[in-house]
């Protein structure tokens, strides 16, 4: 749905998949209970795979741009050895670069990293920024139980700060089997992962050690009113979790909280544009 009072909309939380990578990775990821069951049939699969289908939805829903990330619950490479993960994530980053090159006004490209090896992750980050022109980086909450505030990741955080690139932390699906019995890995598990990574980043002192990092986390829309009171519109970006989330993210924000027109424009696009260092029509 288009909203006449919101001239430009950037959806900061959208996903893509690739058939070949999906075939390699999905049986090792949360969507299949880490190989214990078949991936559930998805009516949205085509939309994950096809930039033109995404653009058709964007046009219908009044969304100008997708900040497009890989699908971490389908295509995470956490299971692979570092060299394999580097090869697979390079392919992911190249495919997204292709989407952004074909439709530069509709897609903002992002980087996925081989997190098993911090040096390889830094090298791919650098390639993603300098050669592919990507504007944000997708990080999991943890690597084999070590959360992102841990000092082992600080060289990567330093590289992220050096490139001044926005980070989107998106859980890959909690691994504890208890959450997979009733498919609670997504509804409850992802939020536990988000709380754990936020605690790790804060309590390990990362934000004091490396000031100026730009980090986005996922928030439930039901918590929006509280979030606005705490941090304000200039710290909140819109994200629908396309193609599995709601179809009218601007409408959901309007319903959840009363904002001035300036605040609404910031949330719909202004804050994201600043974070990504891109221009918007206003
Ligand atoms: Zn998502």
Describe this structure in words.
With 282 residues, the chain is α/β, with parallel strands linked by helices. The protein has a single domain (10-276), classed as TIM Barrel. The chain has helices at 19-25, 45-49, 51-61, 72-75, 82-102, 118-130, 154-163, 178-181, 184-203, 206-209, 224-231, 249-256, 261-276, and strands spanning 10-16, 65-70, 107-112, 136-139, 142-143, 146-147, 166-169, 215-216. The protein has a six-stranded parallel β-sheet with strand order 1-2-3-4-7-8. Strands 5-6 form a two-stranded antiparallel sheet. The longest helix is centred in the first third of the chain and has 21 residues, at 82-102. The mean pLDDT is 95.
Outline the fold blueprint.
Blueprint: E1 10-16, H1 19-25, H2 45-49, H3 51-61, E2 65-70, H4 72-75, H5 82-102, E3 107-112, H6 118-130, E4 136-139, E5 142-143, E6 146-147, H7 154-163, E7 166-169, H8 178-181, H9 184-203, H10 206-209, E8 215-216, H11 224-231, H12 249-256, H13 261-276
This protein binds zinc ion.
Keywords:
282 residues; alpha/beta; TIM Barrel; 6-stranded parallel beta sheet; two-stranded antiparallel sheet; 13 helices; 8 strands; 46% helix; globular; binds zinc ion
């Amino acid at each position: 749905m288009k909203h006449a009072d919101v001239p430009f909309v950037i959806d900061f939380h959208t996903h893509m998949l690739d058939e070949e990578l999906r075939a390699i990775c999905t049986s090792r990821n949360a969507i299949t209970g880490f190989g214990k069951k078949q991936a559930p049939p998805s009516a949205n699969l085509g939309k994950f795979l096809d930039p033109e289908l995404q653009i058709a939805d964007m046009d219908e829903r009044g969304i100008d741009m997708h900040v497009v990330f890989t699908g971490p619950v389908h295509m995470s490479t956490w299971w692979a050895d570092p060299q394999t993960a580097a090869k697979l994530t390079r392919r992911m980053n190249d495919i997204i670069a292709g989407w952004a090159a074909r439709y530069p006004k509709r897609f903002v490209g992002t980087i996925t990293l081989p997190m098993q090896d911090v040096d390889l992750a830094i090298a791919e980050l650098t390639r993603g920024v300098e050669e592919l022109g990507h504007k944000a980086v997708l990080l999991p909450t943890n690597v084999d139980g070590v959360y992102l505030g841990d000092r082992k990741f600080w060289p990567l955080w330093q590289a992220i700060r050096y490139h001044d690139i926005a980070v989107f932390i998106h859980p890959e699906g909690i691994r504890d089997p208890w959450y997979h019995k009733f498919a609670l890995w997504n509804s409850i598990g992802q939020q536990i992962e988000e709380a754990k990574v936020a605690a790790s980043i804060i309590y390990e002192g990362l934000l004091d050690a490396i000031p100026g990092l730009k980090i986005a986390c996922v928030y439930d829309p039901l918590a929006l009113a509280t979030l606005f009171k705490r941090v304000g519109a200039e710290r909140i970006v819109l994200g629908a979790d396309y193609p599995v989330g709601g179809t009218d993210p601007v409408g959901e924000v309007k319903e959840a909280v009363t904002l001035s027109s300036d605040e609404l424009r910031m949330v719909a696009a202004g804050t994201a544009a600043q974070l990504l260092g891109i221009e918007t029509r206003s």
